[in-house]
Each structure stands twice: as structure tokens, then as C-alpha cells.
Amino acid sequence: MKTSRTTKSLITTFGAIAALCVASNAMAAPSGLIPLPAEMKMARGHFQVGNQTVVCVTNPSSQGTADYLKGLVKALRGIDLASGACGTSTITLDLDATAPVEAAEGYSLTVTAKGVVIQSRAEAGLFYGAVTLGQLLSPDDHFGQPVTLEGLSIKDYPQYAWRGLMIDSARHFLPVVDVKTMIDQMAQHKLNSLHLHLSDDQGWRVEIKRYPNLTRIGAWRTPPSNGGPGVPTEPYGGFYTQDDIRDLVAYAAARHITIVPEIDMPGHAQAAVASYPEIGIRDLRNGGDQPTVSTDWGVNPYLFNTDETSLAFIRNVLDEIMAIFPSTYIHVGGDEAVKNQWEKSPAIQAQIKALGLKDEHELQTWFIDQLGAYLNSKGRRLIGWDEILEGGIPQTAAIMSWRGTDGAIKAAQAGHDVVLSPTNPLYFDNQQSRRNDEPAARGWVVPLEDVYKFDAMPAVLTADQGKHVMGAQANLWSEYLMSGWYVQHAAFPRTDALAETLWSPKSTRNWKSFLTRLPVQMVRYRQQNIGASDAAFAVDFTTVDGRNVALASGKAKLALSNQVASGVIRYTLDGSEPTASSKVYNKPIDVTLGQTVIATAFTKDDLKLAGPDRYDFTAASLLTRTSQELTACGKGALGLRTPLTPDSPAKAPVYNIDIFDSCWMYPEVRRDGVTSVTIDIARLARNYGLANEASKVLTHPRNTPFGELVVYRDTCAGAEEARIPLTNPATTPNVTTLNATLPSVTGDHALCLIFTAPLDGPYYAIDTVRLNQK
């Protein structure tokens, strides 16, 4: 059923106060605190903070934190705090070696009638106390007004040392200003590790002065063609200069965030090999040919060589990386290194034999060991994806586990430090819902609740083994995150859930409490122009007895809900936008054909949680299915939600596809009176590197040069109802509409829709399918 968004607003007001038990003290959690502090107690008195309230420091080294606090409160509340001497009626930042919380990132915060005091034994803890105060001073949307703080005592500290996000600038380059925006938001969530993915098949994104071709060639790619007119001719790309990196490192460090660089090796090396062919598998090159920077997403075959020439190149690159990134850890990738080139190379096979290794997996272990030893000699530590476990665990390596948690468990049991980053639920480039307004993404749904309930500590580990779990991070792979807005929309508010799971004690975490505190955070996103998703609160519509009953009767009971079952849903039937005085939804609504329902979720205080959603209850809407409502033939799930143009930073139409089979199922619908079908389609670039899975792509026989869209009744082996020829891609628009007459049938029937276009041409996708009645 088609749901359309009439506006795309976020919350404009604050949420309710959550009642919960913290430690042994039952109290009301101040609205909007995320992550929830470890311990809180109410106290007597109150203190008002407004313009010219003084922020002071007891140690000059803390002035940076004081300045940060002033800027944060200005941004979130519009209050201008002043600097001055410590005394009564001040906000005091006290760096004290005897502060009550021992943890370096821990702090205490007290509010009394005499003022606010934040204490910590280290600057990091003082900073996180300032972040908490910034949240206390932005409890609603009353921007510019003073805030009265009730008496309060907080003792707080994190549960994990590694609390992170990964940004992939290799697939789509994220400019410095957008990286800084993400750093600002990470700081406000008490995250402390930013993993920057700087190289891949599709781009090399950091200046290496000794090897200028890495950015002269490797940072740019030719946009892929969708076969039609208007293909972009300008190369896509970009890179960070070393001065850019120094700026970002300093900006992050001031917010107590460490940037961990990743140079992916030995696989995902196509951009590097395109820049310097001599570091690739030379004896497989054909007459000196070299690859171009890849335009294909997925897994590509190019690997680094493992000879001394390549290792010297890598050491030189690492030297320059270490000179601009002071992080203890250097990430070397190690994932998805398809070994075909190594298997076919006589030189590589001779090296495996000479080294006494069993196979290519052991060669990768040897290769990673060389990198680890070199990094250790420079006072650094190697970290890599869990594939580096194959062939044996390199003694110098820490593991980042993405293929579930097994790699983390195996590594921790062997005494290696680990960071958990499993695809489910910590790949934030996946969709947040199945709503029609979801932007481009991977095809799985990773909802907010799944992130919140993630536990970074595998239950099978002993206490001693658990000490090797450094923490976790969420990954923002950017094949479908084309600009800063897409990155923000994918990250937030799921990052709020991640932050609380990594910071707050497990005993205090509560999903319902989190939901009551989240609305205030959404106000902060709006105040800072962050493109956070409101999918968790947005209203969805369902016909209780199904569409077919509604088509037959001309009426239905319409159920309204949202993903997190939170808030009060209000609705209208007159086409107007719901307000705080609109009718409250408490049971399915009786509607008849021709009616329009518009609904919005509010807090219990009647304040908006999301923009309004609209449902037009018509025969046309009941007979229409969008890309999100179609399923993949045979397996149900459509694996990707792709944009019309792969590299466009602007918001673009998106389509659900299965890259292995151009086949969709339209679910059973009442066909009485249906005479034709209208299908909106799009031509997309077929830019997917499938490596060893390429043979799994299905082809369908065609009768015309450019193929057809074939419509079958009930199943893909059913009666053929229509065969619509496709036009020449080179001369027709990339978005078009197909029409066909359908035979007259009665009863409920599904449709199978198959494109028979050749595999060496563009990929065809379906936007909407509309069955038309007389």
C-alpha cells in the first residue's frame, strides 16, 4: 500500500520524562540524556543557567573543554555562556587527580543552588561531563530561554574503550566539512573512535607524497553508464591532502576522538594497482595492460603482490600514513581478498613454496604478519577485518569482526583484542524500515531496536577472555551513501542506540526508557540541521483484512502504527495535517473508497514525533505496488535499494533490485475488472563486481534485440499475459512507463515480472506496478 510523506519534518518539541531505576536509586531521568549515565541521584536545590552564566576552569589545560561547552550550549540552546573566575553561581570544570570517579573517561557532575561542578581525573572525562551538561541544558525546543537545573548528582563512566563509527570515503568521497559534522555528532554521543576507510577498488582518498599517482589517478573514476543519454562525463572522486588529514586529526582530538586510518590490503586494491601497476600481480598482466579505477561495487579481483617491490611500496605508504595519523592502531583491511590472481600467478605460487606455506590463505597470514611487524617496529598496532584469521591468527593482530561474532570470539579466546562490528545490526548503510520514503541503502532492514539490543560482549566468553573485547563500532559503507545527508540519515538516530549500548551499564539500559528520551535528541538534530531519519516514529497504514477484501467491498478497517509502537497517533479524514488536538487513534478506522487519512505520531504531551503521512484509500492505491512492496522471485528479499544515478549527491529516485535476477513478484490481488497494467521502470548502471559469484546471475531468453518485460500470471512458470518490448537504451529516456493489456480473469492472482534484457547492457528496475480497471 502506498504511503506518501506530505512533509519531511523532524520533532519540533521535546519528549516525556522517563521513569527508571538507576543503580539502587529510583528517580526520574532528566529528559534527553543519551547515553544514560551510570549513576544518578536527585538532590536538593536548583540552579538557573542563562546568558552570561560563567564557565570556569581550575586548570588552564581545561580551557578547550570550557570553550567547547560554550559552543555546544550556544548551538543547542542559544545561550551565551561567559568565561570567568570560579566562585558561586558558576559552572566549574575541575580537573582533579582525586576526583571521585577513577576511570579516565569518567566524571562526576553535581548541580546545587551554588552552581554546577564537573570533576574528572583526566581531560577526556571532563569533556564527557561537559557533553552531559550540554544535554541537560537543552531539554526541550525553547531555544534561547534560560534553563533551571534541578539538584542532581551524577557519576558516570563508559563500559567499553572502543566506541566508534566507520566512514567509507573510498566509494563516495565525504568532504572535510561533512567529516567534521560527523565528528561533532560523535562527540555529542560520547563516541571516541572514527575509523576512516581511505582506499578501495573505487578510489584512493589520501595524499601520499612519494606516490602522487595514488591521487592523480587512483582518486578518480569514470561514472558508469546506464546505457542511455545523459551519462555524466566528468570523473567522480576527490581526496584528502595531508594538511586536510592533520586538520581532521586535530579537530577530532580536541573532541577526544581518535581517527584510525584504513588502507585495505591485500584485496580491494584496484585503485592502487591502477595507479602503480608494478605493485599488482605482474606476471598476469597482458602486454602491459593495467586496470582502471573500478566503477563496480562489490568484490573485485585485484590484489597487491607480496614480493619485496610491493612490500617496500606498502611500507613507504604506511610511513606517510603514520606521520599524519598518530593513532595506536592502523587498520590494514584484509577482507574479501579473492585469491584468484594469487592462485594463477606462477611467481606467487613459487613464493608460497619458498616460504613453506600451505596455500594462499597462509600467504595472506604471512603478508599481514609482515605489516604487523613493521607497524610494531614503529610503536603502532595492526588491526584488520576478521578474514585475517584465515590461515591462522597473526600474533600481532587485533581483529575487527564483521561476519557475525565468531571471529571476535575466536580471536578473544586466543588472547587477541577485538572490536565487534557485525553486519547485523551494525552495518548502518542498511535500510531502517520498509517504508516507501527510505533512501538508497543495502536491502536488509536494521531497525533502531535491533541496534539498541545489541550486546558487544559475546556470552560464551569467560571473564578473562572478555577483557579482550575493546568495544564495537557501526559501519557506514558508502556505495549508497552519496553525500553527507545520506551518511547522517543512515547514522542517526541509530547511533544514539549504539552509544547507549557501549557507554551505559547493561543493568540500566531499558528500551522503553530510551524511546522516551530520544525525542529530545531529535530536537537537537533539527537544531543542528542533521538529516536524521524519523522512520522509527513515522506512521504506517495497514488494511486489517487485506487489500483484496477492501477491493471487493469498497471499504476497510485501517490500522495505524509505527515501528517502535511509541507515542500517540493522531489523524484526520479531511485532508488537513494533524495537530495536537486532532483525533487520537485507538482502534482501526472505518474508511470507504475515496477517503484520505493523514496521521502523525506525537508524544504523550501532544508534541510531534515525525512528519505527517498520508494514505489515499482508493481502488487505484489498492491495485498499486511500489518497489518496496514487490518481492524477489524465489527468495523474497530484494538485496539492494539503488539510486537512479550511482554518484549523484542529490536525493534521487530509488529502486529495489536483486542483482542476480531481474525478476519481481507482485503479490496476489483481486483481478476482477482489471484490464491493463502500467509499469514505471528505470534503467540503471550494471556496476556490480561479483567475483566468484558472477556465474549465479540469471539470464532470460529474449525475442527482441533489447529484450522485453514479460508478465506471467501467478508464477514465473504460469501463463504469459504480456510481453512488452524494451526500446534502444541509447535513444530513449532512462525513466519510462510501459503499458500492456491484460486478459480478463477473476479471483486472486499474483504476477511475475521478468526483464529479458541482455546482461552486457544496463540493469532494468521497477518503480511501481499499477493494475487498471475499466
How do the helices and strands line up, and which of them pair or pack?
Layout: E1 4-5, E2 18-22, E3 25-29, E4 39-49, E5 54-57, H1 63-77, E6 82-83, E7 90-95, E8 107-112, E9 115-120, H2 123-136, E10 147-156, E11 162-168, H3 176-188, E12 193-197, E13 199-200, E14 203-204, H4 213-216, E15 220-221, E16 236-237, H5 242-253, E17 258-265, H6 270-275, E18 297-299, H7 308-324, E19 329-333, H8 340-344, H9 346-354, H10 360-377, E20 381-385, E21 397-401, H11 406-413, E22 418-420, H12 423-426, E23 430-431, E24 441-445, H13 448-452, H14 463-466, E25 469-476, H15 484-491, H16 494-503, H17 511-527, E26 539-543, H18 547-553, E27 555-562, E28 568-572, E29 583-584, E30 589-592, E31 595-602, E32 613-617, H19 619-622, E33 624-626, E34 631-632, E35 640-643, E36 654-657, E37 663-670, E38 674-684, E39 688-690, E40 708-713, E41 720-725, E42 735-741, E43 748-755, E44 763-773
Parallel strand pairs: 5-6, 5-7, 7-9, 11-12, 11-25, 12-17, 17-19, 18-39, 19-20, 20-21, 21-22, 22-25, 23-24
Antiparallel strand pairs: 1-32, 2-3, 4-10, 8-9, 8-10, 13-14, 15-16, 24-35, 26-27, 27-30, 28-29, 28-31, 31-32, 33-44, 34-37, 35-36, 37-43, 38-42, 38-44, 40-41, 40-43
